[in-house]
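Notebook entry, structure prediction.
Reason for the run: the old model in the group folder had no record of what sequence produced it. Starting over properly, with the input documented here first.
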Amino acid sequence: MHKVSVIRTACDAKLAAELEALRQHRASGKKVAGYTCHAFPAAVLAGLGLWPARILCDTSADAESAGEKVVRPDVCPLVKTLLGNVAEKRGLHGSVDLWIGLSTCDQMRRGMHSLSEHLACEVHPIQFPATRTQESAEYFASQAKRLVADIEARHGQRFNAGVAEQWQQDHDKAAAVLSRAARSGSVSPLDLHSMFHVFFLAQPAGLAEFFSKLIASAKPYRGSKTVVLAGGPITREDTALMEELEERGYAVLPLNCTGLNAVEHEEIAPAGSDLIESLAHKAFTMPACTRSRPNTAVYTRIEETLKTSGANGLIVKTLKFCDHWYTERERLRRSFGVPVLVFDSDYAEGGRERILSRIDAFLETLE
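New structure, fully documented this time:
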């Protein structure tokens, strides 16, 4: 049993307060917009008077089973839990008024289609190009502008550039604090996990100050060894990996889409006269996922992080039936000159012991 830390206690209280504020937001007649991928320019939603919420929570075996009433069992666990929670109006999913259907993979695209067609949700599809070219960035920006126009027309909203710009500035300040904390190695794996999930849901005003004070008030964590963590999204409840690493005294550099890839940029996004276009370009420069073509930048980023951090090994955690990360497993295992563990998982209770046994065996090789 892990002792609940100062940081996790404060993050739980912050999340509870944000959820209450979200409920009040809806009670006042305003709406919540849900999305799943960090590469979406959420500030445009704030500019429309919506509450942007990155929905990576409430995952469980029960939610997966509920999702299998909508889609086949051999579908990504994250997609199944999303559909199951929406179908049964569970947790935060039941408070989402409209969804941004960012098509980052075929399974998520199909999941968003099921949200619309089978569960009668309002879904706004938007394609995130896999190729990293200027033309692709411009196409993505044009879709963001179309999305804003569609929501304005459907909900009678008016995009407020000042609100969107301030939201993004506050968001970037909080992101910078999390980036420094994660790269310092002085925050425990579970504490980092909690802070990132606050970041995905909370309104960003004052969030940088909240994180800074929280980190300063806590005893610095000192890991005996460091591992780099790559792979797909890790939901709020999916803590088995972090628990095992922290139990063994490891520090974690979370180089995944629910870690540093959600708060850092590969390059400076070009400024433009159109704010929506600039925000879309900024989102497009988030670190590449394995879905990118070519995806050599993913391997370069992992390799550079392994070298600069002196990490002892690499763990790649992905989800069952993943079309992107798990299919790269052999290339990942032979690319970096350090021990590499690649494993897939779901949210079933029975899979936890299998995961922990594999992690434990891998850590033994590092020790």
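Summary: The two ends are 23 Å apart (CA to CA).
The old model has been moved to the deprecated folder.
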